[in-house]
Amino acid sequence: MLIAIDGPAASGKGTLGKRLADHLGFAHLDTGLLYRAVAAVLLNEGIPLSDREAAAQAAENLDVAHLDGPDLRGAAMGEAASVISAYQPVRDALLAFQRQFGSELPGAVLDGRDIGTVVCPNADVKLFITATPEERARRRHLELLRRGEDVAYTSILADIRRRDERDMTRATAPLKAAPDAITLDTTALDADGAFLAALAIVEKKRSKT
Ligand code: CDP
Ligand code: CDP
Q1: Residues placed in the known binding site for ATP
Q2: Ligand 2: which residue has its CA nearest to atom 17?
Q3: Are 110 and 104 in contact, with CB atoms under 8 Å apart?
Q4: Which ligand 1 atom sits nearest the alpha carbon of residue 146?
Q5: What is the pLDDT of residue 75?
Q6: What residues does ATP bind to (predicted)?
Q7: What is the ipTM of this complex?
Q8: Mutation pick for ligand 1 pocket among 36, 139, 147, 157 (CB with most ligand atoms within 8 Å)
Q9: What residues are in contact with ligand 2 under a 6 Å CB criterion?
Q10: Structure pTM?
Q11: Ligand 2 pocket: which of 64, 82, 97, 115 to mutate (most atoms within 8 A of CB)
Q12: Nearest protein Cα to ligand 1, atom 12
């Protein structure tokens, strides 16, 4: 079984994806980390994010087995990831790994921006997670504080709005709900509430197959 989760920044995709995967015994891939890791290569080597060829090269050479690092989940990397993720060759280079991950048994959960539309259009369940920009900024603010990054709320809100706009309007694999996705507005839900609502959707689908 394959579960695709898409949605804007800090909507809770990763948290939900991990909870669902743990509960179901499935593999989980936070695909945003792939783009963040590519951006990190450029930033660490002092290469401008506007260098499309270097970005594509970094994506092709990415060591997908070691996707972590203290800076990867920081605010600066999210913004940088959004810039290089608009380059088609970068997306192309990361596609095969994501699709292969989607065939993991007994199941897989992938979260990102284009999972239900491009990476796994045949996913069994497609969820599109939303929340108001203000609520998402509030969540990200708390999350960054926990990580020791004290970024102003207003700056996070501005970053989220800019990133959503860029992700939704780019020519390649823009952020949007697949026609067969179920939208879950989590503005008034905590992480437990979002998990229970999503699990009910997944269980309903499982009982039919
Ligand atoms: O992956 P994405 O950027 O969409 O969001 P996340 O990193 O999973 O979640 C951002 C923060 O919001 C985390 O600290 C979560 O604990 C929190 N949160 C959530 O995930 N879901 C809710 N319904 C409410 C809060
Ligand atoms: O956690 P958050 O939602 O803030 O960001 P993320 O999921 O880690 O993604 C960072 C950036 O990578 C996004 O703003 C997108 O531009 C890009 N991305 C993408 O283009 N396609 C994906 N499947 C996942 C992320």
Answers
A1: 7-15
A2: 82
A3: no
A4: 14
A5: 86
A6: 7-15
A7: 0.97
A8: 139
A9: 9-10, 14, 31-32, 35-36, 78, 81-82, 85, 112-114, 163, 167
A10: 0.97
A11: 82
A12: 139
**Number of domain units in the chain:** 1
**Residue 81 sits in which domain range?**
2-207
Sheet harboring 27-30: ordered strands across? 27-30, 108-112, 2-6, 125-130, 182-185
Alpha-carbon distance of 202 to 195, in angstroms, equals 10
CATH number of the domain residue 196 falls in: 3.40.50.300
Report which of 125, 126, 120, 123 is spatially closest to residue 177, judged by C-alpha positions: 126
> Do residues 14 and 32 lie in contact, with contact meaning Cβ atoms separated by under 8 Å?
yes
Predicted local distance difference test score (pLDDT) of residue 74: 87
> Which atom of ligand 2 has the smallest separation from the CA of 73?
8
Report the nearest-CA residue for atom 3 of ligand 1. Answer: 10
Name all residues whose Cβ lies below 6 A of ligand 1: 7, 9-15, 139-140, 143, 186, 189-191, 194
What is the rounded (10 degree) CA torsion for 9, 13, 14, 19? 160
pLDDT tens per residue, the chain (209 residues)? 999 999 999 999 999 999 999 999 999 999 999 999 999 999 999 999 999 999 999 999 999 887 887 789 888 899 999 999 999 999 999 999 999 999 999 999 999 999 999 999 999 999 999 999 999 999 999 999 998 999 999 999 999 999 999 999 999 999 999 999 999 999 999 999 999 999 999 999 988 87
